[in-house]
């Protein structure tokens, strides 16, 4: 979660409410913004790689409406109020050999230099104030090939090998930019657009809603998915999945 701070964090309450094991390992993560849906999976995957025979739950819980600034008439605040919505999602990961589900073939992060000003929050007397630069879509477009091609090449793949695009929508302009870039490669992000239309941008939870739509359709065995999200920093998070 990035849309508020609470101590103890939500996982402490879940341990009590669900009567989970008393030796469960907690790792609250904040300040990753919209990228955290994928980065959380990356952290969990690496934990499970180091601890065979374990399971992990990645939980994304966001309340962007709690950050709304009533007396802020800036375009950034107006746009964020229009596109962001509250949401929560969870994805379960396992390193048990008998458990079923998509396999994470690879993961990676890509960091943009000198772009910390593009997106985020700043503390003001009335709470968290949104920072949302209009240059974000252009910045993504200018780095797009560097984000996608080397990552796939490391896995002996190209975009033509990818069957499913599981993409965090951001907002309308970002969707339009990425749709054009993927469209030139013969791919579509229809599920991403539908999630944005139905629920808005729910920050870290959004890409997990998109993932759920693919999981519900039960992709064919062996099909590949590219999971992608962007967030403050500025950074891109990537996962290569095999269904």
Please identify which CATH superfamily we are dealing with. Answer: Thiolase/Chalcone synthase
Tell me about the largest β-sheet.
4 strands, mixed
Say how many strands there are. Answer: 8
Helicity level, as a percent range? 25-40%
Task: Work out the helix count.
Answer: 7
Describe this structure in words.
This protein has helices spanning 10-17, 36-50, 75-83, 136-154, 172-183, 190-199, 206-216; strands at 55-62, 87-94, 103-111, 119-124, 127-132, 164-167, 224-231, 235-242. Strands 3-8-7-6 form a four-stranded mixed sheet, sandwiched between helices. The protein has a two-stranded antiparallel ribbon with strand order 1-2. It has a two-stranded antiparallel ribbon with strand order 4-5. Helices cover 35% and strands 23% of the residues. It is built from seven helices and eight strands; from the N terminus they run H-H-E-H-E-E-E-E-H-E-H-H-H-E-E. It has one domain (1-243): Peroxisomal Thiolase, Chain A, domain 1. The protein is an alpha+beta fold and 243 residues long. Strand 7 and strand 8 (235-242) form a beta hairpin.
